[in-house]
Amino acid sequence: MDYHENILAAVGKTPLVRLGRISEGEGIEALLLAKAEFMNPGGSVKDRPAVKMIEDAEKRGLLRPGGTIVEPTSGNTGVGLAIAAAIKGYRCVFTMPDKVSPEKRDLLRALGAEVVVAPTAVPPDDPESYYSVSDRLAEEIPGGYKPDQYSNPANPLSHYETTGPEIWEQTAGRITHFVCGMGTCGTIVGVGRYLKERNPEVRVIGADPEGSIFSDPENVHPYLVEGVGEDFYPQTLDMSVVDDVVQVTDRESFLMTRRLMNEEGIFVGGSGGMAAVAAIRVAKDLPAEAVVVTLFPDSGRGYVTKVFNDEWLEREAGISREELKRPYRVFE
Ligand code: PMP
Questions:
Q1: Which CATH architecture is the domain 65-142 placed in?
Q2: The Tryptophan synthase beta chain-like PALP domain covers which part of the protein (predicted)?
Q3: What's the 46 CA to ligand 1 centre distance in angstroms?
Q4: Whole-angstrom Cα distance, residue 274 to residue 20?
C-alpha cells in the first residue's frame, strides 16, 4: 500500500514542468522550468508555510488544543491553515483586504473559517487595516494565536526545508537561476537561501508587480495582481538572498496568465503569469546549459471572474478582446 497518514503529509513534492511551447515562442535556448505549487492539497504554495507555522507554534506551546488561529491572509495561507486546523481541531479567523476576489472569501468560509474583511486603501498601521484588525482579534480572543506569516521564521524555513531541496533534487543540482514572486518573501528567501548554500553561483531573482515596494519604493500604488508585492518590507525578507528584482506590469502578468493556459495548459493565478514574464526576461539571453526555474504559486480557479473573465480584463486592466486573440509575446 502507498498512502499518506493524512492530507498534511501530501503537502509538497510538487512536479517541475518544462515551459516548452513558451520557450520556443520566445526564442529561449535555456531550459525553462516551473514548479507547480498549485498542485498542493490546498491549491497553493502556502500549504507549506501554513503547516510549518502551526506545528512550530504547537511545539513552542503558543497554540494549545481548542485554540484559535488568527491571520491576515489574502486566501492561500488561509486555505493551508484551515486544512491543518480541521485535522488538528483549531478555530480559524482570517482578516483580508476588500480587493480580494469573492471566490477566495467564500472558499475560506467553505473550509470552516470566519472571515473579516477590511479596506485595502489604508496604510498597514491604520487601525482599520487588515493587519491591525488581526492583531486586535488575536489579543481579544482567548487562546488566540497569530502565526504572522510576515514575521514568522517558520514561513521561509518551510521553503528552506522542502521547496528548495525539491528543486535542487529535481534539477539534479543544475539549476542556475531561480525566479520567484515576492509577497511575504517566504518562498524566495527560503528557497534562495537553500540553493545558494548548495551552490553560491545560483542567481535568485524576484518578480514584483509595478506598484509594489520591492522593485520601486518611490512609486508604491495599488495594482491588480493578487498575492504578490507589498507596500511595506516584511520581516521575513532577507535581501542578501535576492540578487535582482524584475518589475512586471498588471497587463504583462495577465496576458501571460492567459497564455500559460492557452499554450501550456497550465491554469494559474496572476502571480504565476507575473513570475513567468520575469523568468522569460531572465532566460532570454542565457545559453542552452542554463536552467531557469520559476514557481507557480496557485491555481486559476480562484480567478475565474477576474483574469479569466474577458469583461473584467477589459474593464480593470484595459486588455481588449482583440488583444486577447493575438498571441502575446514578451519578446516580439
Ligand atoms: N502568489 C500568490 C497567489 C500568493 O498567495 C502568495 C503568498 N502571498 C505569493 C504568490 C507569494 O509568496 P510568498 O508569500 O512566499 O512571497
A1: 3-Layer(aba) Sandwich (3.40)
A2: 9-298
A3: 7
A4: 18
pLDDT in tens, 284-294: 999 999 999 99
Query: What average pLDDT does the chain have?
Result: 96
Q: Is the C-beta atom of 46 inside 6 A of ligand 1?
A: yes
Ligand 1 in contact with 271 (CB < 6 A)? yes
Cβ of residue 183 lying under 6 Å from some atom of ligand 1: yes
34 SS3 class: strand
pLDDT at 124: 79
pLDDT in tens, 73-100: 878 999 999 999 999 999 999 998 887 7
Domains 7-39+163-321 and 65-142 share a fold: yes
Q: Tell me the CA distances in angstroms from 171 to 44, 176, 215, one per residue in order.
A: 21, 10, 28
Q: What is the second-level CATH architecture of the domain 7-39+163-321?
A: 3-Layer(aba) Sandwich (3.40)
All residue ranges of the chain with pLDDT < 50 are: none
ipTM of the complex, rounded to two decimals: 0.99
Contact 290/283 with Cβ under 8 angstroms? Answer: yes
Residue 61 CA to ligand 1 centre (angstroms) = 27
What are the residue boundaries of the structural domains of the chain, listed by start?
7-39+163-321, 65-142
What letter represents residue 294's amino acid? T
CB 27 within 8 A of CB 107: no
Atom of ligand 1 nearest to the CA of 297: 1
Question: Which residue among 298, 299, 307 has the greatest number of ligand 1 atoms within 8 angstroms of its CB, and so is best to mutate?
Answer: 298
What's residue 103's pLDDT? Answer: 78
A 10 A CB-CB count for 269 gives 31
pTM metric for this prediction:
0.95
